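Structure tokens please, single chain.
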Amino acid sequence: MARRFKSPISYRLKEIPIKYIKVWKDAQARRLDREGIADLARSIKNEGLQNPPMVQKSGKNEYLLMSGQRRLAALKRLGAKKANVLVLTNATRYDIEDAKAASVVENLHRNKMSTKDMTSACVFLTSSVGKAKAARSLGISLPTLYNYLGFAAVPDKLRAFVPKELSRGDVTRIFRAAPNVSKAVKIAERVIKIDKKLRVQYLRALIRSPNATHPKLLKRAKLGLVRQKVTLNLSKSNARKLKRIAEKNDMEVEDQAYKILGAYLKKR
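Here you go.
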């Protein structure tokens, strides 16, 4: 006999005044798509509220919104005074940081996010719940999270090299290749001693081969300086294919092209 599914979250349906529902401070600053809220309001007006917001009692006549910020905004747009909500029981109360993550992720999955909005969400989640949990919540890898975060992800020990010894771009590339702080600092200390022209090639080699030794990276960097530049005129379909491969491998398009060409020439 099949085991009966038991939800890890328990709640009860209750109608409460909308004015009792409080949105936590960080979420209040989040921009909501006005057009999307208007569409949702029309849907609720025509079909009713199919999925009530989830709240947690936080005081007398006060409930903290756990998820459903867009639905709450749509209800307010309709002029509703009361709303049916799912009130979490004491047995499954949310940790506030988990609630923040759940709310942001819900908003992401319900909307087609621009790169700018996705970046904002990554920064917000990382500061709220940490990098590893932010990546898991968003369904992306840590390297992809670092790409969205850019310089915002760089730890203070690496930022200390900017701007006197390294540029923002330099330390961002180093941390992208070596997310371990102590390892990244050691790499930064080596990079500082390298000539600026050679440094560009060194960092490119580092991103392509983050586990390579310093002598090997230096050798590849020097080869990169004397490498003859070749212009490739690709068809639109091949250019798109190259871009997809580069994104999949978390590389720059130019570096991916060199890698493919290099692998091809080795076989000749």
